[in-house]
Amino acid sequence: MIKTLAVMTSGGDSPGMNAAVRAVVRRALDRGMGVYGIYSGYDGLLRGAELIKPLSWHDVGDVLQRGGTFLGTARCEQFRSVEGRRRAVENILERGIEALVVIGGDGSLTGALLLSTEWSEHTQTIASLRPELKEVVERAPMLQVMGLPGSIDNDLCGTDMAIGVDTALNHIVGAIDDLSSTAASHQRTFIIETMGRNCGYLSLAATLATGASWMLIPECCLELHWHQRMVECLDKARKAGRRHQMVVIAEGARHPDGLRMESGEVGKILHEKLGIEVRLTVLGHVQRGGPPSAFDRVLSARLGVAAVDRLLDEPDVVHRHMVGVRKNRVVSTPLSEVIEKSREIQTLIESGDFAKARELRGEAFGTMLELVEALMAPCPSREAGGEGSVVLMTGGADSPGMNAAISIAARRLLDRGVQVLGSRDEFSGLVHGDLRVLEWNDLAGWMGRPSSDIGTARSSQVLEDFGKIAANIRRFNVKGIIAIGGLDTYRHIQRLAEMRAQFAEFNIPVVLVPASIDNNLPGSDLCIGSDTALNNIVDAVDKIRDTAGATRRAFIVETMGKQCGFLAAMAALAAGADKAYLPETGMSLAELNRDVSELRKSFESGNRMVIYMRNEDASRHYTTDFLRRLLEEESKDEFEVRSVVLGHVQRGGSPTAFDRILAGRIGAGAAGALLELMKNGSDEVLAFGLQDGAVASCPLSEALDRMDAAHGRPREQWFMDLCAFIPSLAKSRPCCRETTGSANSQTSAAKLSAAGR
Ligand code: ADP
User: Fold this and answer.
1) What is the pTM assigned to this prediction?
2) The CATH number of 4-162+292-326 is which of 2.30.42.10, 1.10.357.20, 3.40.50.450, 3.40.50.150?
3) How close is the Cα of 77 to the center of ligand 1, in Å?
4) 291-326, pLDDT tens digit by residue?
5) Are 300 and 576 in contact (CB under 8 A)?
């Protein structure tokens, strides 16, 4: 079994690297290993001495919410040489390090692979030059290496998302939103340059998430007259009433001849051809900075834990792998494959083979590109044909991203010549004939708006006014419905379908889109709005941490979620809380007793703040207030206890990039499926969602069968598997655990780590 492991960050920094280091360190300590932190990337590994230090449980406290990497990162030319790597091997040998976890981009992973494959060569040379290390060399036949993808560009194969991408995307989307308001005031056109030298993912996703007018990325094949197309499109949109336009350009975008494109020259073309004011904003390094998003923190925790577990649980495997996440599952891919495929795409782009490069980026990239290209058009490709309309509605408690789902689903339908009507407040609009005509150019601006512009107020009328609904379906020639909402909306649609025998008008296809911050809907691993709510909670907990001061304080933070523990559990993982009380697992007196004694021990061992997340429905009787009073009574004035109920702030604000893209993907899928059903004269009712990373659907009845009806949540919930990580990564764990692993290690440096520093 591996006894000593080292972890480092290398290459360009990315938000979430700290969270990944924390997960690696704590999981390794928890499983009895000794851990070294290597400071300044390969430079530190090569120079050794104080740059390779044992890390304890508390050394990775309070780093989760910090951007960048506390270990530091550097570029190291010397490591590219055989001699440089041999120095690194000596440092590794001297400390008895048996496994190395490297968090970085393709350069860093290449370095890690080389180190592992050249290991024997280096150790033999070292043994011949330094006979005193001969024994050590004999005990170290190989170096296991595990890579974690850390790159904001998302240019690594073997993972759908790299650590830092989601945070960077949120920065870009936030900046475009902010620029849009000033652009609209002055009727200006903005050019926004994003990072992404070899990969257009950030620009592509930001264009989708903001409804930008035009995009230029390395994977796009530009024909010779590309600027004419761009100018015509922007001009048409302006004449059709778009007050401002945003053009997103990736720093690696190229001319058809392969030469890099300058953002300034794009601005010049637009100014000269259209006579408009154009402003250029190069986003630069703000994209890398700041606290990691909830998604990046959870991803880092999952990958960090998986890297350590695989090293320990698969002792017979030669580990030269990268752990990544594909289709929402942690997978490992040989480093050689990751590096080779990632490089191949770069070569294809450089040689102008854009089609092949796009193909290798994967299906999701291709689908998103197709969607963005259709949405960038200045007007629908077809006029509304008068063959009927589709009604869009949003229902239940509002959730961020509903407007984004309406925007994309509606534009998909308008593009096929279908008239789209927004029903006010779910079914109320259909009952009262209050239907709003939705138009192409207005809708582009809906992507970032909070909540739903057509209203979500609960409409109990659906249970009474079927006659009026049927009359309006006839009157407005409604051929299909897209309903975006929570469980009540699902049930209302089911009720409508049950009334088909009495109302022939209801024999039209209906498609459901899951939107609920609670993430409690069937047929979708994630619901629109849940990522925004999670980030709102994590932001709040970060702020609560800042209030710690010098006192010892226990905080209980109550989240929404009804009978689904998604928000409380994921927030606990992302914000580094010590525990999550969930409705799925309930609360018991025996457990509370244990928690009280753990809490006391934790403060005794030097912790200053302990945070418990509690879902609002975790227990009917052991409420948040009860818990606060219980802990206060048991504190014996040794620590303070505070509780906070986050309430509706969780639902508010502009949707995150993740929610907008999710809304876009599911909304587009739902609209496409509805068009198909309408064409075939079908009256199916389908529930759409994201399953295993792909947009999928099933009949509504089947989806509802997957529900635990008594508790209003799906019977199977993927995130419950991650709950075990919460206590094993929690900050307040007694510090005794840091002594276990490296105490057994053979080197003096490892014993230093055992001393607990
Ligand atoms: P990233 O990991 O973000 O792609 P770089 O490409 O700059 O960043 O790589 C980071 C470091 O990894 C380099 O400074 C170098 O020390 C090491 N490295 C990169 N490529 C190689 C290589 N081909 N051989 C050995 N080491 C490499």
Assistant:
1) 0.95
2) 3.40.50.450
3) 8
4) 999 999 999 999 999 999 999 999 999 999 999 999
5) no
